[in-house]
Amino acid sequence: xxxxxDAGLVPTYICATVGTTSSNAVDPVGAVADVAAPFxxxxxxxxxxxxxxxxxxxxxxxLNGVERVDxxxxxxxxxxxxxxxxxxxxxxxxxxxxxxxxxxxEYLKNDASDSGTVTDLKDMQVGVGxxxxxxxxxxxxxxxxxxxLQEHIRSDVAMAKMFEESVRADDxxxxxxxxxxxxxxxxxxxxAGMSEEATEAANRELMERLNRTGxxxxxxxxxxxxxxxxFAVGSSLQEERHVRxxxxxxxxxTTEIMSGEVSV
Length: 264
What we know:
Blueprint: H1 2-6, E1 13-17, H2 29-36, E2 42-46, E3 71-74, H3 76-79, E4 88-91, H4 95-101, H5 111-115, H6 133-169, E5 173-175, E6 183-188, H7 196-213, E7 219-223, E8 226-232, H8 240-259
Parallel strand pairs: 1-2, 2-3
Antiparallel strand pairs: 3-4, 5-6, 6-8, 7-8
Helix pairs in contact: 6-8, 7-8
């Protein structure tokens, strides 16, 4: 950022992520805010996925320093039992939004808005109209309550930990990055002099065979140049037996690949 200033540029915005989509990596929010402060850059925290986990005290440390940021977003539709789509945005200074986006044509004027006693969301977004997304989140919170929502998060994390332990116990696999929440990034590890290209091909084949069964679905990502499989726990109906069944299927398909069996 200092190099940008020295080059005549103006650092404007920096985004820290709590739970990246690819691997659930977590940026140090407080440290990012400290670095941005001398430059007066806007600091946003993208906690779309893992923000939900922070309703549990044991995960709140991932947001340490959040009191120094300018905005934070989280998406309850990702992990908090809420239907797509529902994203929450908190902004420290709403005038930074309304100053740029406020609109007040004659046909939108009304007594409630003119009184200043209501929050006019049209002045905080590009569009004028919006759906009542907050209602479904309110209903989830009223239906389940904090305790049961915490149980949902903790159950998913526990099942992901169980899956991770199974992966680590099988010497054909490796966990590629540390598991922070309910996502496990793993792969068939290179063996017997396999090249990285051959390892990627084996993992692609495993993913395709698994997904063709219709019994489990895995996605992938690339971390540090490595093709990696992603096993995510998050469904409200998922139980330990489903995770164990998926792991047994993974083991079976891996054995087939390594023994040269043709997939049907």
